[in-house]
Amino acid sequence: KRAKLPFTKTIHEFDFSFQPSISEVRVKETLTCRYIANGENRILLGPPGVGKTHLAVSFAVEALTQGKRVLFLTADELEAECRKAEKQNTISRLVRRLSRPDLLVMDEVGYFPFSDITANLFFQVVSKRYEHGAMILTSNKSYVEWGKVFGDDVLATAILDRLLHHAVTFNIKGDSYRLREKKKAGIFP
Ligand code: ADP
Ligand code: MG
Fold first, then answer.
1. Which of 44, 64, 86, 173 sits at a 20 to 30 Å CA gap from 33?
2. pLDDT band, residue 189 (cuts 50/70/90)
3. How far apart are CA 66 and CA 62, in angstroms?
4. What string of DSSP letters covers 85-143?
5. Rounded CA gap, 135 and 137, in Å?
6. Is residue 46, in this structure, part of any structural domain at all?
7. What is the whole-number distance in angstroms between the Cα of residue 89 and the centre of ligand 2?
8. Is residue 139 one of the residues assigned to a domain?
9. Could you give the CA distance from residue 99 to residue 80 in angstroms, rounded to a whole number?
10. According to the model, what pLDDT value does residue 186 have?
11. How many domains is the chain partitioned into structurally?
12. 75: domain range?
């Protein structure tokens, strides 16, 4: 199955001058896709509208261009897949499916807390992928808040311990690009 991207945008459409908190050097380094061969992770944190999904999509597009197997899904989709798998008794098959691709992109972690079963599956996937399968995560929640996202501080710590061992975090600060466009159009004060 191909990556189901929410939209197709590339890094050429990204305005770095609008988002000075993002290291262009680290973005360029990520676009080489070396982190995929190395089984490292890239994590994009920040409030809504700062370009997390745009960057995650750009990284996924580049990985696809380089012939990597990419799976892109939102945390919501993971939750839905997980509930379905639980009903059908296929959780271990879902863990395998999420462990296989060269790059797993999980967008929008933290908008909703995960159910226990999904939090547990997420831990299994992160453990399986640790040091050989790259992941990209985006989240509106800082790491200290991940205990609430996963409903368990100990589990969140175990997940972060593995995720962050070989990872770069893009801590994006600043204004929403969406609101900037609305402000320019006079829709938003
Ligand atoms: P987030 O995932 O952080 O909520 P998005 O990546 O969805 O935000 O960005 C919201 C919209 O604004 C998208 O259409 C995206 O392409 C655009 N956008 C965000 N930041 C930039 C930027 N620095 N340059 C160009 N477009 C941007
Ligand atoms: Mg987004």
1. 173
2. low
3. 6
4. HHHTT-HHHHHHHHHSSSEEEEEEETSSPPPHHHHHHHHHHHHHHTTTSEEEEEESS-G
5. 6
6. yes
7. 31
8. yes
9. 17
10. 76
11. 1
12. 22-184
Residues with CB under 5 A from ligand 2 (ion): 53
Q: Which residue's CA is minimally distant from atom 21 of ligand 1?
A: 51
For residue 37, the CA-to-ligand 1 centroid distance in Å is 27
DSSP state of 179: H
Residue 83's CATH number: 3.40.50.300
177 in any annotated domain: yes
CA–CA gap between residue 59 and residue 154 (Å, rounded):
30
Residue 8 lies in a domain: no
Q: Do the strands 103-109 and 167-171 form a parallel or antiparallel pair, or are they unpaired?
A: unpaired
Ligand 1 pocket check for 53: Cβ under 6 Å: yes
Give, rounded to a whole angstrom, the gap between the first and last alpha carbons of the chain. Answer: 43
| Mutate-to-test residue for ligand 1 from 177, 179, 183, 188, highest number of ligand atoms within 8 A of CB | 177
Tens digits of residue pLDDT in 65-124: 999 999 999 999 999 999 999 999 999 999 999 999 999 999 999 999 999 999 999 999
What would the two tokens of residue 160 be?
């972060």
